Amino acid sequence: MTPERRQLLGFWLGVLGVTLFAITLPATRLATGSAQDPQLAPLFITVGRAATAGLLSLAFLLATRSPWPRRRHWGPLLGAVAGNVIGYPLLLALALRSVTATHAAVVTALLPLVTAVAAALILGQRARLGFWACAVAGSALVVVFAWLRADQAGGFGLARADWLLLGAVVAASVGYVYGAQVTPELGAERVICWMCLMTLPFSLPATLWLWPDTAAHPVRASAWLGFAYVGCVSMWAGFFAWFRGLDWGGALRVSQVQLLQPFLSMLFALPLLGERLDWGSIGFALAVVATVVLGRRISRPAAPASSIVQGDPS
């Protein structure tokens, strides 16, 4: 394969990865249902998607005869597990019981910016004052958006679901940073596999223990489809396309595709959930993405270890 063809293929793998991740929000909403019409419990979805991805990871690691991580790898891997396998999925599932996928897409649009902030704090990377100004501006836009939505619903301030979404963004960002620390040595695909496999001794028994009683409370087929998607794709297969795209197409070039994710999530919420697009959500998402773009342009180049940190939430 020529370098030009490899780079082009990497770009389209990045597009595929972002598209797969964009479906995570509506798929999770399908699985959880709403507060008025609950389906699968958020805790069951969290451990279930980890168990599903863990079994797939076990098969992959055995098939590829992957060596065990070394002692120095376990600390960062545990940090990545806490953020990406436990924190983000659980907080996201809890939040999506109360808000739409479109609403969540606006709040989670902060993820690239918060990930860069986490990298600066955890990895000791320096950033210019302008970058921090963009981080504050993007956060303020999300707060204003959530505040206005709460006011329209007759509430005041940020709703509980908004705090959960912000917590999910922070958890995912920290997880990506820790995962990026061992990516150069283990390889991107193996990092996500080891993360999921590490939780399997706990996630699999917990999944069986929490398995819903469908006789007492029937669960729609669409909820099971959403659950299968977040376990097989959001938690596992999507990372293969995304990380390989970053590797072949160049992290700087391919990571820009990530800016499309909140809008793709909104589009997928139309046919999957019947949600409607509103100009307020689109406008705030555009504004948040603009702060992300500006923050990237005026920040210093990231260290090689954090090039994969631009990954998406699952």
UniProtKB/TrEMBL annotation:
Signal peptide: none annotated. It comes from the Bacteria. The chain crosses the membrane at residues 41-62, 74-96, 102-122, 129-148, 160-179, 191-211, 223-243. Keywords: Membrane, Transmembrane, Transmembrane helix. Residues 9-138, 161-294 form the EamA domain. Pfam families: EamA (PF00892). PANTHER family: EAMA DOMAIN-CONTAINING PROTEIN (PTHR32322:SF2), INNER MEMBRANE TRANSPORTER (PTHR32322). This is DMT family transporter. It comes from Ottowia pentelensis.
